[in-house]
Amino acid sequence: MKLSYSIKTALTGLTTHKSRSALTIVGIIIGITSIILVMSLGQGAQNLILSQVNGLGATTIAVIPGKIPTGPSGAAQIMSDSLKEKDLVALKVRTNVPYAKYVMPLVIGGGNAVFGNQTYQVGIFGGGTLMTQILNISIGEGSFFTDDDIISKQQVVIVGYKVKQHLFDGDEAIGQKIRINNNTFKIIGVLPEKGQSGFVNFDEAVIMPYTTVQQYVLGIKYFSRIIVQADSQDHINATAEDVRNTLRNSHNITNPINDDFSVTTQADIAATLNTVTSALTAFLAAVAAISLIVGGIGIMNIMLVSVTERTREIGLRKAIGATDKEILTQFLLEAVMLTATGGVIGIILGGILSYIISIILTSALGMNWQFIFPWSAAMLGIVMASLVGLLFGIYPASQASKKSPMEALRYE
Description:
Layout: H1 3-16, H2 18-24, H3 26-54, E1 60-65, H4 85-92, E2 100-115, E3 118-127, H5 131-134, E4 141-142, H6 147-151, E5 156-159, H7 161-168, E6 177-180, E7 183-190, E8 196-197, E9 200-201, E10 205-209, H8 210-218, E11 225-230, H9 236-250, E12 261-265, H10 266-309, H11 311-319, H12 324-365, H13 375-401, H14 405-410
Parallel strand pairs: 3-10, 5-7
Antiparallel strand pairs: 1-11, 1-12, 2-3, 2-6, 2-11, 4-7, 5-10, 6-7, 8-9
Helix pairs in contact: 1-12, 3-10, 3-12, 3-13, 4-9, 10-12, 10-13, 12-13
């Protein structure tokens, strides 16, 4: 018997029992859909995170207080007060960090901005006049604070677009005074609508001189970050090493193991996040793939039932000359066709759902969540589905091929 005839016979067997065939491949559809969904959203999340990191600037180096934790016992080391004014002064010395273009402290907190009976929860960022260059922000209305404001700890504030809209409902904000953590600050500027920038949404934030935040908002004398920008990408690694050496001298550290700070470049952050997101996506895809195994077991069970129900058909085919090999081929082809069909449907359904979810996430998060169709996962899904059909179809097919034609014809 030719293979084409076996394929035609297998298709006839499947289309004769459409409802059973459809129910049989549900598990495969769910498995492949889940894999496509996880891989697509995982790659979309990875691209979004990496784009946010790159949005901070390729030459930006962040100095973080405390060590990056390597386990539960090190979690407390993140909240460290190791970065002080003396460190900022040392990093600004040209001979210590010759390739540094900008050096700026950053103080980060949160609180409620209050005007009249309106309250809005805001992120609070205290920095220097270099914030406009380093963090790529601009002023829409009013002006930015000055070096004199930083030195004199002036109680001035620049508010984000959404903060102004919520507190003043479109009215003039420049010159008005708002309260943050029981202190009064005069608005001197308003940021234009920008949305997410890096990991920060400045539309929902306020910006002040870092000395003002330290004195009147947080009551601290240390920095949350020190941002260093190298003069070129070629000098990033050299600048990062100069920063480490300078801070070790400032903190009297001779052994790098005892560092009470961490220096990270955007490339370091991107590489770490890429590893984490890739591992998480792979894990979730592996979990989703378990449903393929469940679907394969379901196919084997249904095929065994099918063999029993079609005993007389098998006996009749053998009586007119069909060999064991041909019967085996027919039932194997049925199993592979079922799973391959389920795979194709799962890929299409997974792609559609991924596209819809990417649109929803873009709208909900206010970020450009890119839809990415995982072609490699789709091809692998088809192969895996076919292999599942082949593996779990062998036993039912072998059982069908072993039936005696005389007994099969007598079967009721």
